Amino acid sequence: MNIADIATREYIQVDIDERLGKVRSLFERENPKGIVVTDDGDYEGIVTERQLLQSHIEDDAKVQVMVRNNVPTVERTNGVREVARMLVEGGTKIAPVMEGDELWGIVTEDAILESVIENLDVLTVEQIYTEEVITLTEDDSLGKAINHLREHGISRLPVVNENGKLTGMVTTHDIADFAVRTMERQQKGDRSGEADRMLDLPVYDLMNSPVQTVDREESVRAAVERMLDSDYAGLVVTPEHDDAAIAGILTKTDVLRALTYTEKESMDVQITNINHLDTISRQDIYDAITEVTDKYRDMQVQHAHVRFHEHKEKLRGTPLIQCQIRLRTNRGQVGGTGEGYGAETAFHVAVDKLERNVLELKGTRADAEYEGQVLRKLGEL
């Protein structure tokens, strides 16, 4: 299937000189996956709702200060698996579809999932969900929620009560929607005091409740159908028969990542936000992770995911980078996180943490001659 079969030529676009205030309003009214930015009719890039939330830029600034021109573009003839990989590695929910040098349309993660949903019965939620979850308590402030979303580069935060039980969910869209509506109600003048009061608001006043959940034993198809029907980007994963406990989270990105799994017997390391790579290459990353996993007997890697996230802080022009490594193995999930100035430094800190976690969690013993076999969960669609 070519991506042109599921792409659309209907999308929201703004000129590069448009005010950010209008863009924020468009997200609030239309709830698009992303907005196309053009310069005198020519494709320039994409703006996402997460960017707006992470930005301190005022509404009167122009879109050109925020446009993402590193979003991967795809050709009409690209396949579904290839485009799924591009969306995951680009950290985006939307990709421009090009015909030569011209913008032909867009493709969204929802369109891809709808096109392959019948194939997703072969997977269970337990095989692909994310175990590591960042949560908030009901009394935590909106400001803390925003900081967590920015720091971890995520789009949703489950909320728990004082007993650690799931009671709600706060998402990027909820916060952006609330901020736009609040600012529109205010009169012109100094709004700094009102903004501070917004940040002090407890997330209990903003969260969605009850929360959509899915059991680990359910099929991925059932989970995706629930997300598409409710227009949710993720579901809280719960143990069987306990909807108030949190076992992890399943997002549309997790499902897209599963679509890229292959049956190859060499590790296919997937990188999110690959544009942050500086003095380190994909091959360097592959070699370092393989060196760790090949040391340990009975540990077979099913999938490796490396994610880079750039902070605002810089040192002599080099940004502070957070690197997260996650391995899915036949003995469960294991990962490592590290920070440093530049992607290479952050990655090596994360690799050291990964190896320590492997030793602690798995209790496996070194074997220099072991050649790890990579298992994959989904064949060709």
**Which CATH top level class of the largest domain fits?**
Alpha Beta
Q: Say which CATH homologous superfamily of the largest domain is assigned.
A: CBS-domain
Output the number of helix runs: 12
Average pLDDT score: 83
User: Per CATH, what is the topology of the largest domain?
Assistant: CBS-domain
Instruction: Please report the total strand number as a whole number.
Output: 16
Category from helices, strands and their pairing: alpha/beta
Determine the N-to-C terminus distance. Answer: 9 Å
Order of helices and strands: EHEEHEHEEHHEHEEHHEHEEHEHEEEH
Percent helix range: 25-40%
Tell me about this structure:
With 381 residues, the chain is an alpha/beta fold. The chain folds into three domains: 3-108, CBS-domain (Roll); 125-257, CBS-domain, CATH 3.10.580.10; 266-362, 2-Layer Sandwich (Double Stranded RNA Binding Domain). It has helices at residues 20-30, 49-54, 80-90, 109-116, 125-128, 142-152, 172-185, 192-200, 220-230, 252-259, 282-293, 343-362; strands at residues 13-15, 35-39, 42-47, 74-75, 94-99, 102-108, 136-137, 156-160, 166-171, 213-215, 234-238, 248-251, 270-272, 301-315, 318-329, 332-341. The strands form five sheets. A four-stranded mixed β-sheet has the order 13-14-15-16, with helices on both faces. Helix 4 (109-116) packs across helix 10 (252-259). The termini are close together.
